[in-house]
Structure formats: C-alpha cells, structure tokens
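Postdoc handover notes: sequence design on the structure in folder B. Input tokens:
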C-alpha cells in the first residue's frame, strides 16, 4: 500500500510542478489582448490631443516672437520663421533667437507650420502675415487645423486648413 501512495504522491508533485496548461495560457493571452484593444485607441487619441495642444502653444510662441521682433528691430514682422530662430550668440534681425530651430523648420509635434508674409510697407518689410498649423497626417498626428495672424487670435477648423474667418479657439 505504501508503494501505491508514494507513486500517487510523485504523480501529484510532477503534475503541480509541470507549469501552466495550454488553456490557462490562452486565457491570459486573451485577457492581455482585450486590455490592449481598450488601451491603444485611448493612447492614440491622447497623443493627438497632446499634439493639438502643442500646436496651439507653438502658434502663441510664434505670435509673441513676431511682436518682440517687430518691437525690437522696427522693421515689421520677420520674412521667415528662420529669422525668428538663431544661435543666441549674436542676435540680429536675421537670427533673432526668439523661437527654437525645430519650430523654425516648420515641423514640430506632428504639425506643419506654414508662415506667409501678406502685405509690405514701402521698404519691403512685412506688415501682416498668416500662420497655419496643419496636422502632418490628419487623423493620426492631429485632427484640428489652426490659424493665426498679426492679431494673435488663434482660429480652428476641423476639416480644412483654418483661415481668418474660422471660429477662435476658446
């Protein structure tokens, strides 16, 4: 009898030390996939909203830099975004050092920034400008399109590039 008992003990020890069954592993994988299916779309939406917030803040930074540029150098607004950036060692109207070089390149946080001087004074210095921020990949890097000009009012459009006639961001 003892012999049967020890065989039974060995079988139960071997079974308990064998690990997880296939069904248990499949259940764990299914639970992980369900959690991922819920979490990934929320993460992507959060990333788009963060990019949109960053785009609005970058438009504010550029508008403020334009006002400082105009006040400091007395030549109206800059001709390009690159004039607002610089190395901060020697600042002048071509390297003002007011915004970072990444933003001056026109692409930051999944948004493309397009700066266009519109009207000029008799010396050729810009008096007005338009500035658009559009998602690099609509629906992925951002959903909203933004616009501002020398009035520093930021406007938004959900479907097409924003213009001066769109509603302001609140």
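Designed sequence:
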């Amino acid at each position: 009898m003892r012999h049967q008992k020890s065989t039974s003990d060995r079988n139960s020890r071997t079974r308990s030390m064998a690990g997880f069954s296939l069904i248990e592993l499949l259940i764990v994988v299914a639970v992980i996939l369900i959690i991922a299916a819920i979490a990934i779309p929320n993460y992507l939406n959060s990333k788009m909203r963060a990019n949109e917030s960053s785009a609005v803040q970058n438009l504010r930074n550029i508008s403020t830099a334009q006002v400082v540029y105009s006040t400091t150098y007395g030549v109206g607004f800059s001709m390009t975004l690159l004039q607002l950036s610089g190395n901060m060692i020697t600042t002048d109207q071509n390297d003002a050092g007011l915004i970072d070089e990444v933003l001056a390149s026109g692409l930051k946080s999944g948004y493309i920034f397009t700066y266009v001087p519109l009207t000029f004074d008799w010396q050729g210095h810009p008096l007005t400008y338009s500035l658009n921020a559009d998602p690099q990949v609509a629906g992925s890097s951002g959903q909203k399109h933004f616009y501002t000009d020398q009035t520093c009012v930021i406007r938004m459009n959900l479907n097409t590039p924003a213009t001066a006639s769109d509603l302001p961001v609140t």
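Context for whoever picks this up: The longest helix spans residues 22-73. Don't rerun without checking with the PI first.
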